[in-house]
Specification:
Low-confidence stretches: none
Distance between the termini: 49 Å
CATH topology: Rossmann fold
Strand content: 25-35%
Order of helices and strands: EEEHEHEHEEHHEHEEE
CATH architecture: 3-Layer(aba) Sandwich
Shape: globular
CATH superfamily: Vaccinia Virus protein VP39
CATH class: Alpha Beta
Mean pLDDT: 88
Helix content: 25-40%
Structural class: alpha/beta
Largest sheet: 8 strands, mixed
Number of domains: 1
Number of strands: 11
């Protein structure tokens, strides 16, 4: 427990475990205890996602986190001002962890949870983020692209720098891709969905 300290992402966002005092009362504070589920902010891919989300204007936005793990990204967007977050995962334990973590952060009323097999066909959002691995990102490009509204934003992570071009190739037909951001050999790919 002594190894987990408050972490800052971008300009506003701070993540810390429940046994620590609030590090900065003026920050957007997320309480998240490290657990078995992936995603507590210490990993470069999660950090890349949090930094990107911190840089966005999320007011009145609906955000989908595809492959939600701990729910850290949904909690962050809701605390940063998003109207609604939707967490999707194939693992029932991830859905439970997301629920528990959003309850701990008092934002569960703005979160909708779906197992991937149960998500509605017409589900769409202003911002879609997927922090999974490059292989599934490529295979699921059609599904993930379909969740994004025209002119909506896409953020992808969980990608080794050497895999970035292959992932970009899968999304480029539907998105205008922005410059890649790299951290510790991992990268984040963001883009804007082309209007229909």
């Amino acid at each position: 427990m002594d190894n987990f300290h408050p972490m800052r992402f971008g300009h506003k966002l701070s993540i810390f475990p429940s046994w620590r005092d609030t590090p900065d009362p003026n920050a957007v504070n997320v309480i998240l205890d490290p657990g078995l589920e992936f995603g507590n902010g210490t990993y470069p891919t999660t950090s890349l996602c949090l930094e990107w989300l911190d840089s966005l204007n999320l007011k009145d936005k609906t955000v989908i986190d595809f492959g939600c793990g701990s729910g850290i990204l949904a909690i962050a967007v809701l605390k940063l001002g998003a109207k609604k977050a939707i967490d999707i995962d194939i693992d029932p334990q991830a859905i439970q962890a997301s629920h528990n973590n959003t309850e701990q952060n008092s934002v569960a009323d703005k979160l909708v949870l779906y197992l991937a097999k149960d998500q509605p066909e017409d589900l769409k959002a202003d911002i879609v983020i997927a922090n999974i691995l490059a292989g599934p990102l490529r295979e699921l490009a059609g599904v993930i692209s379909g969740l994004t509204n025209p002119n909506g934003l896409l953020g992808l992570s969980g990608i080794l720098a050497s895999q970035a071009e292959a992932v970009i190739t899968a999304y480029q037909p539907q998105f205008s891709i922005e410059p890649i951001i790299e951290k510790e050999g991992w990268c984040r790919i963001t883009g804007i969905k082309k209007a229909d």
